[in-house]
Amino acid sequence: MTTDGQELAALPLTAPGADETMVAIGALLDAVRAIGAGAGLVLVRSTEGSGLMFVDAGHICWAAVPQTKRFLVDRLAAAGLDREALDEALARSRTSGRPLGAVLVERGDVSPDVLAQVLHEHSLESMAHQIATTISAVEVLPRTPGAFASPLSFPAVPFFADLAERLLEIPRPLYPPSAIADLADLTAFGVLATDDVAIPVRMVGQRVPSVAEALELATTGRAIMTHVGGGTASFRERRRAWSVAGTPDFFMVAEGTTAASFAWMVSKQVPALSWPDTDVVDEGEIA
Amino acid sequence: MHRITDLLPDALGAAVMVHRDGAWTSVATRGYVEVYWALGLLDLGQRASDAPDAGDLEAVVERGDVHVVIGNGSCAVVARLPPGSNIGLALGCLREVMRSIAS
Predict the structure, then answer these.
(1) DSSP state of A177
(2) Which of helix, strand or coil describes residue A168?
């Protein structure tokens, strides 16, 4: 999956509906998982051209799609930066080869927080635009670890959850962040699932999982919810506890390492759901 | 099974199963309980485990009624309870049954 320029996913050349959008986000998540702790470029080909996502150590550092027609400088100007200062910084960036954002922060033209917000929005909108134009393939081009490392990068799972939020209709979470505020060890997020794909869509827990962890929990959760039909299923084995609550197409997953986490999983109620009828069969005499 | 009956008098169903000669066999049952469903649940849970075969896996499922299941590679116990049952008590009871099977 990580060989140079390997195509990770060939996606349907149809107008993207909800399922195709989920498949596309799933393919991007797979690409970031394939990069793992290293660095890489994710090339996102579509009928309108190719976009790029720069990934380093499980963080999204930058994403750009030429056809969005909205450049970083435009966003920075909209955020209140002076055009003249921007032009000076841009010229310095081009001559020095340093990123524009780094030059702007160094000059005091923008705070790191504002720059991070602008970069995040730009990356998010670029990927949203690319997915909306029908992706035909996703490829990974490995790079040296640390190649894109930046203090202004974004953990991948919340990034893609935000992306899904922008493109899909996401049900409200079955429990809010306040319900687990005391459980710092808990990973918790919503999952939107079909037969083909299961993607994290709404972060709730304080702990941010890696893409590999999130996809594994999402896939496991889908299998368990399909088996259960709907409801809450909580598991514990030694120090690890995990839980799935919802229906097969939208559910919350949680994972923790303390007895308190398991107790919370078992005690939580999700009364908003209507449970399917339970088929109770007398299977007492199995052999 | 007597222990389950004593401690969980409201149980709608319960079963104790052992794995022998490559197949699961129920050694005691009471009422109605979805045994294969419970074993399937344990199997899915064990696939999600960090360390399969590391010990007992406990599962609590609420979908109208409540299923409490504890199992490992050699034995399993399941109880089906009405909504609102004391899950802590049920877990404690089933753990005791698992210990008695192991001893």
Answers:
(1) G
(2) coil
Which carries the bigger pLDDT value, residue A79 or residue A178?
A79
Which residues from A are below 8 Å from B34, CB to CB?
279-281, 283
What is the structure's pLDDT at A221?
93
- For residue B26, give the 3-state DSSP assignment: strand
Residue A73 CB coordination number (10 Å)? 16
A266 versus A113: the higher-pLDDT residue is A113
Cα dist from A185 to A76, A262, B5, whole Å: 37, 11, 37
User: ipTM score of the complex?
Assistant: 0.91
Mean pLDDT of A63-67: 83
Determine which helix (DSSP H) or strand (DSSP E) holds A199, and give its type and residue range.
strand A198-203
Q: What is the mean pLDDT of residues A158-176?
A: 85
Confidence at residue A274, expressed as pLDDT on a 0 to 100 scale: 39
Q: Indicate the residue of B33, B57, B80 with minimum beta-carbon distance to A235.
A: B57
Tell whether A236 lies on the interface with B, counting CB pairs under 8 A.
Answer: yes
| Tokens, residue A218 | 């999402």
Q: Tell me the pTM.
A: 0.84
3-state secondary structure of A8: strand
Structure-block tokens of residue B6: 């004593």
Q: Do B48 and A284 touch (CB under 8 A)?
A: no
A152 close to A122: Cβ distance less than 8 angstroms: no
Point out the residue among A237, A238, A278 whose CB comes nearest to the CB of B63. A278
Q: Determine if residue A279 is left, alpha or beta; phi over 0 gives left, psi from -120 to 50 gives alpha, anything else beta.
A: beta
Alpha-carbon torsion angle A58, A100, A129, A158, nearest 10: 30
